[in-house]
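Quick review question:
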């Protein structure tokens, strides 16, 4: 299997003409092939592992990983950096999707990990989703939240694992903030993308792991039930894989965030929803 790159000249031209381009999705080679072809050296990156850490107990773990911006330069050419409002989509085996703004990848230390530094199994217990020994490979997007402690409050919301594909995509603003909504709802739209849209969708935009339309769902359940689902989903449905809003945030902030997300979803125009899966839903 050859390493499929987005031709840098094509990407740069598209960005210059009217960018950002929505480049073709790039299926990532397996780690051994990627290592053989890259000019980069893997680093050992120590992080506070958000999937293992719980309130009052930080768990540190070290991974072997490539700096994400340098790796994206190798795969896409440096032209991806030209549009900070664009996004890099990291897609996992199960349809989980993280769309990370280019500006965020350039601001904070992000890495694409492929192994644990201690040689132990490349897996994690995801306490927030009630899952044990979850395989992380082939790739796991991690952040140096020791050097950048402000990232810890978000928990693991933007730490996708089992990443198999990346893609440069336009900004999500048009999908999440229809005309006239940006001035009032931009912060809530960003929160929805961070905490909800890796699995769920808004009017067809979002992840494929549990693609129910949250703009519709917010209209179907009352405010108290919505709060319970977002703050403590395991209490509503024991065994659900839906994580709560980050427990690392103060409780009052979590409650306010749940309310703001619902208000934003109710303010959105409602498009026809796709058929939803039958697993736990908020």
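Suggested answer, residue by residue:
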């Amino acid at each position: 299997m050859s390493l499929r790159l987005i031709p840098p000249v094509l990407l740069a031209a598209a960005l210059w003409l009217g960018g950002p381009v929505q480049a073709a999705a790039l299926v990532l080679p397996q780690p051994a092939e990627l290592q053989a072809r890259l000019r980069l050296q893997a680093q050992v990156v120590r992080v506070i592992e958000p999937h293992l850490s719980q309130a009052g107990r930080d768990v540190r773990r070290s991974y072997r990983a490539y700096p994400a911006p340098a790796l994206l330069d190798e795969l896409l050419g440096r032209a991806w950096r030209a549009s900070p409002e664009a996004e890099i989509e990291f897609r996992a085996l199960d349809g989980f999707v993280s769309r990370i703004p280019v500006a965020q990848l350039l601001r904070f230390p992000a890495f694409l990990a492929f192994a644990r530094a201690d040689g132990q199994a490349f897996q994690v217990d995801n306490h927030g989703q009630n899952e044990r020994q979850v395989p992380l490979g082939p790739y796991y997007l991690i952040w140096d939240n020791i050097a950048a402690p402000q990232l810890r409050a978000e928990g693991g919301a933007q730490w996708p694992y089992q990443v198999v594909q990346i893609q440069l995509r336009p900004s999500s603003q048009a999908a999440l903030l229809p005309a006239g909504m940006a001035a009032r709802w931009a912060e809530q739209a960003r929160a929805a993308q961070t905490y909800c849209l890796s699995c769920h969708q808004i009017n067809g935009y979002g992840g494929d792991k549990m693609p129910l339309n949250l703009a519709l769902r917010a209209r179907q359940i009352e405010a108290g039930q919505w709060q319970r689902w977002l703050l403590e989903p395991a209490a509503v449905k024991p065994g659900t894989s839906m994580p709560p809003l980050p427990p690392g945030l103060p409780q009052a902030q979590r409650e306010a965030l749940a309310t703001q997300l619902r208000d934003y979803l109710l303010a959105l125009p409602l498009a026809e929803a796709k058929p939803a899966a039958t697993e736990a839903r908020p």
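Why it works: The longest strand covers residues 60-67. The radius of gyration is 19 Å.
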